[in-house]
Design goal:
About 55% of the residues lie in helices and about 0% in strands. By secondary structure, it is mainly α. It has one domain (about 1-100, about 115-145). The radius of gyration is 16 Å and the shape is globular.
């Protein structure tokens, strides 16, 4: 998809790179407000620092989920724009919808570190893909029919 975008007539990387974070923020903001299933998933990440587990700079954190040290933000080597966008949207959603009751109390003592059980679960790849893609089709259809 990115390759297709780069081949658009008149594409200017510097112009797109300057605007892309705000475009991504707006898209995420609409997506997470529109679909309760993925909104809850994002709200359930509170109070943890978020990152896209990708070596793609500047969007990812510089690590994949399989890399040693990926769960510790002190190791991240990239700006992690996607994580910052998701945190911004999450904070706005908390102001609008509140923190899910399961996360209001008893959060881990170090919110800057992803819990070991989260960082080692292969389902995180599916979860991340679900969040970024809008969720599995059957979940999306069930939400729309409500």
């Amino acid at each position: 998809m990115k390759e297709i975008g780069r081949n658009i007539k008149g594409y200017k990387a510097d112009v797109w790179n300057a605007k892309a974070p705000e475009v991504a923020y707006k898209a995420c903001s609409v997506k997470f407000r529109e679909y309760p299933i993925i909104r809850k998933t994002l709200l359930d990440t509170h109070p943890y620092q978020l990152a896209e587990a990708s070596k793609e700079r500047p969007w990812g954190c510089g690590y994949t989920l399989k890399d040693d040290g990926a769960s510790d933000p002190k190791n991240w080597t990239s700006k992690g724009i996607m994580g910052r966008i998701l945190e911004r949207v999450r904070e706005e959603l908390i102001m609008e919808f509140g923190v899910p009751s399961s996360r209001q109390f008893g959060a881990t003592s170090n919110p800057d570190t992803v819990p070991k059980e989260v960082s080692e679960t292969t389902d995180n790849d599916a979860l991340a893909q679900s969040i970024l893609s809008g969720g599995p089709e059957e979940e999306m259809n069930s939400v729309e029919s409500q």
